[in-house]
């Protein structure tokens, strides 16, 4: 069973930066996408950014130009660099690992809180 270990959340003032990290605890096989989703109180979980094993990225419009996702395939680790943070970025951020093509798996981390004060 693969587990995803997240770190890097916290409290920051508007305009500040945070870096989230997520590491899979086991070797991952096959084409996949690692990414981050977030859920604010009273709202549905939404995509923030994803990156495939081939380094193809996808971002929510609300974070384009401010957030950067990257990964180290050999370490099964994904990072999310968040700059110019806004109060509306406040949410629990969840790491996700999903198999693509014929690879059928879908794992979630437990979430890390990001709070941006105005």
Main attributes of the structure:
single chain, 118 residues, 7-stranded mixed beta sheet, globular
Secondary structure elements and pairings:
Elements: E1 4-7, E2 10-13, E3 18-24, E4 32-39, E5 46-52, E6 57-59, E7 67-72, E8 77-82, E9 91-99, E10 106-108, E11 112-117
Parallel strand pairs: 2-11
Antiparallel strand pairs: 1-3, 3-8, 4-5, 4-9, 5-6, 7-8, 9-10, 9-11
What does it look like?
The protein is built from no helices and eleven strands. It has 118 residues and is mostly beta strands. Strands 2, 4, 5, 6, 9, 10 and 11 form a seven-stranded mixed β-sheet that branches. The protein has a four-stranded antiparallel β-sheet with strand order 1-3-8-7, with no helix packed on it. β4 (32-39) and β5 form a beta hairpin. The radius of gyration is 14 Å and the shape is globular.
The value of Rg in angstroms is 14 Å
N/C terminus separation? 40 Å
Q: So what's the overall shape?
A: globular
Annotation, overall tally of beta strands: 11
Coarse structural class:
mainly beta
Residue fraction in strands: over 45%
Concise description?
The chain is 0% helix and 53% strand. The protein has 118 residues and is mainly β.
């Amino acid at each position: 069973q693969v587990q995803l270990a997240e770190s890097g959340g916290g409290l920051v003032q508007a305009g500040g930066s945070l870096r989230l990290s997520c590491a899979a605890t086991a070797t991952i096989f096959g084409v996949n996408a690692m990414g981050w989703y977030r859920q604010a109180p009273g709202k549905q979980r939404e995509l923030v950014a994803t990156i495939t094993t081939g380094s193809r990225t996808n971002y929510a419009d609300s974070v384009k130009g401010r957030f950067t996702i990257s990964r180290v395939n050999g370490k099964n680790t994904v990072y999310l660099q968040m700059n110019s943070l806004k109060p509306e970025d406040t949410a629990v951020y969840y790491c996700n690992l999903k198999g693509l093509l014929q690879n059928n798996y879908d794992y979630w981390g437990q979430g890390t809180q990001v709070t941006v004060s105005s």
